[in-house]
Amino acid sequence: MYYGSGFTNPQIWRLAPRGESLCLCYKERVVKVLLLISIFLSFYSSAETKVVESTLFYEVAPASKGSLLETVNSASPIRENGDVFHGYTKYEINWRFWWKSNNKQCVFTKVETTLKLKYTMPQLRSSKSDVKVVWSNWYPNLEIHEKGHGKLAKDTAYKIDKNLLSLGPKANCNLLEKAGNKLAHKLIGELKKSSKQYDLNTNHGETQNAWLYLHL
Residue 147 has what DSSP assignment? Predict the structure, then answer.
């Protein structure tokens, strides 16, 4: 039995405040293939998706409601090419597969996909009631938009698990490995397109009331 693996570099989606353009940045994908001989004698078919989510908060402490937008812009660590962003979602998808070979055929017996999601979001530090009202109206919408990007990544991770395990047998394991990685990267490409379309459909969260200016 052997196993192979592949991964994508992190993809980042940022939500821009009013008057700023949204920048979607991608890095080149890299595939690593690792072959190991296993001593396991029994074979079985299984798929497993692991999702690890975390949130990094940056503190926002406005002096007043009128200074809230300026304070969020100043506090945000999410900056690129002179633009400031209020939230972003980064994902990294890794997959591994195991196979068995007999009768001049090779087939996957197990697939394991891991998705790491990391959100960067603002956290309010204020006792002022008018600031809290604005925040409570705005922040859940920002979170909904970013979680929408996260859901697209989750759906893709599940598809990679399911589709890789559904691949039919190949004449040899080298062909199976290439077919598996090609399929996984195809799904990653579809994820990029669907995430772009999601931002187009929502105007980067504006139609979801995720832009702070809508609540001031």
Answer: H
How far is it, in rounded angstroms, from Cα 149 to Cα 163? 21
pTM assigned to the model: 0.79
| Tens digits of residue pLDDT in 129-184 | 999 999 999 999 999 999 999 999 999 999 999 999 999 999 999 999 999 999 99
CA–CA gap between residue 180 and residue 107 (Å, rounded): 10
Helices assigned H by DSSP within 26-166: 68-75, 129-165
Q: Which of 6, 11, 7 is nearest to 153 (CA)?
A: 11
Sequence ranges of the domains in the chain: 2-215
Half-sphere exposure of residue 88: CA atoms within 13 angstroms, side-chain side: 19
Q: What is the DSSP string of 57-97?
A: EEEE--SSGGGHHHHHHHH--EEETTEEESEEEEEEEEEEE
